Amino acid sequence: MTKTRIVGGKLIETTGGDYNIYTKESIVYSAATTITETGVEAGVSYGNPEKYSPATIESEVEVKILKDTFLPLGISNYKDKIENNTIRFEVNCKKGNAENLSFFIKHNGNTVFNSKIQNPLNSGQKTTIEWDGFSNSKIYDSTLFTNGELIVEITGASNEPKDIFKSKYDEVRWVDIKIDKNSKIIDVTLRVDIKDGGAKGINDSDKVSNNAIDYYRIKPYDRQNKSFDELKDLALSGIDTYWSRTKSNNAKNKNGGVLINENVYEVFVQSISDENGMPAPELTYWTNTKLSFLQELFGASRSRNWILSRKLFYIEGYYHENGYDHSNDDWLFIDSDYAMKEFVETAAHELGHEILKEYISFGKSITHKGSSTVTQKPNGTYSYVDDKEGEIDIMKYTKLSNHRPPNYYDRIIADEKDVLGLLWCSKLKIK
Q: Which domains does the chain have, with CATH numbers?
C-alpha cells in the first residue's frame, strides 16, 4: 500500500512527545536543498531498527453451550445406536487475538473440570470444545447436571465470559448414575414408588381344611407376619440383587459386569423408596389363599406390573391349588424362607417391566421380550440353557415343560443389555 502526500507550501508536524515512524522496508527523504535532523538534548542517534509494537487491543470472546442430548461413555440405545457422548461448547472470538485461554466447568461455584484451549483465536474465529461429562478425577455424576447450577467459563481473554446451562433427564426421572473411570464401577440409584397394598387372607383361616392342617401340623396364620416396611425392603433388595452385575454376583457367569467401549464396568444398583420414583406395584401380604375357579383361571394371585394393574404379592402359609394333592385337599404350605426367596426374585422381575417399557417398548415388556403372549403364556421360544453355569434371564418366560435347575437362584440375573438399558434411561437433555 502506498501513501503519497503533496503539499504546496511548508509542512510542519509538532508533537508533545515522541514521534516514531516504523516501516518494514525503506524510508527515503528527498529535498531540493537541505535535510536537517536536530536532537536538542541527546543529539541524533542511529542504530538497529525497532520492531513495530502496536498498542494492545483488548480481546473479547463469548461461550455458549450447544443444546443437545447427552449420555456418557457412548452407551447405545436398544437399536445399538450410540447416543451423544460429549457436551459441546462454542467459543467465539469477537475482538482481538485470544491466546492461552482456559476452559472451566463449575458446579455451585466449585471447579469440576478444566483444560487449556490449545489454539489461539483471532477475531472472527470460532472453536468447538467437547466435554465427556467427567470431572478432573474421572468421575461422572448425573446429579451434578440435575441438581444445582452448572456454569462454563473461559479465562485468558480481556473479558471472562460464562454461560449457565441446565439439564434434565430426557427419558425418566427415577434413576441417577455415577461412573468411576478409574475403578470401572457404575453406581446406580433407582428411586421406586412402592405402596402398601395391605393384607389378605388373615381372616380366612377357617377356609383351610382340617385335613391339610393335620397333614402339615401347622396352624393357619391369622396375622400379618411381615410388615409393609419389611416387604418393601425385601422388594428393593430384589432389584439390587438381580439388576446389579458384578464380579461377585451372578454376572460372574459371563463377564462380571457390562461391556462398554471394550471396557467391563461393574454395575451396583441401590434402590430406594421414593413417592416420586418409578411406578411400582402395591405390596400385598397374602395367606390362606384360596381362589375361585375364575380367579384361578385368570391368575388373580399372579403378581403383575403394567399401567392398568400393579400388584406384587407376598404369599406364605397355606395356598390352595386345584389338582395339587388330593390327600391334603389340594392345599400346600409355603414356609417363610421359600416365600421370601420367591418374593425377592418376583419383585426384581415385576419392577423390571417398567425398565423394559422405557428402554425398549411396552410390547416387549408385556411379552417378556418376546418369550410370552400378551396373555402371559410362555410361547416356548426361551428355555433354560443346557450348561450348568450360564446366566438365566430374569425377564424371560421359559416354556412350561422346563423345570428349574438346582442352581436357579445362583444363575438368574438381569441380562447385560437390559442393565445397559437401565443406564440408558439416565440420558440427559442439555438446555
A: 60-165 (2.60.40.4070), 175-430 (no CATH)
Q: How far apart are CA 202 and CA 222, in angstroms?
A: 5
pLDDT tens, 300-332?
888 888 887 899 999 999 999 888 888 889 999
3-state SS record for 277-323: CEEEEEEEEECCECCCHHHHHCCCCCCEEECCEEEEEEECEEEECCC
**pLDDT exceeds cutoff 80 at 132:** yes
Convert the pLDDT of each residue in 163-216 to its tens digit.
998 889 999 999 999 999 999 999 999 999 999 999 999 999 999 999 999 999
* CB atoms near residue 313 (< 10 Å): 24
For residue 287, how far is the Cα from the chain centroid? 40
Contact, 327 vs 215, CB < 8 A?
Answer: yes
Q: Going by DSSP bridges, is the β-strand pair 278-286/263-273 parallel, antiparallel, or unpaired?
A: unpaired
Its pTM stands at 0.82
Q: Which of 107, 115, 83, 110 is nearest to 165 (CA)?
A: 107
The closest alpha carbon to 197, from 313, 288, 303, belongs to: 313
Rounded to a whole number of angstroms, the distance between the first and last alpha carbons of the chain is 49
Supply the mean pLDDT for the chain.
Answer: 87
Q: Which residues of 180-210 are buried (b: 16+ CB within 10 A; e: fewer)?
A: bbeeeebbbbbbbebbebebbbbebbeebbe
**Would you tell me the crossing angle of helices 416-424 and 336-359 to the nearest 10 degrees?**
60
140 by DSSP, 3-state: which? strand
Nearest to 177 by CA among 111, 260, 250: 260
| Amino acid identity at 333 | F
In eight-state DSSP terms, residue 378 is B
User: In terms of C-beta density within 10 A (0-12 exposed, 13-18 middle, 19 or more buried), how is residue 368 classed?
Assistant: buried
Q: At what angle do helices 228-243 and 336-359 cross, to 10 degrees?
A: 60
> Running DSSP on this structure, what letter comes out for residue 207?
G
What DSSP string describes 188-199? Answer: EEEEEEEEEEEE
Tell me, what amino acid is at 172? V
Strand, helix or coil for residue 401: coil
Q: Is the dihedral of CA 375, 379, 381, 384 positive or negative?
A: positive
Looking up cell 502496536 gives: 54
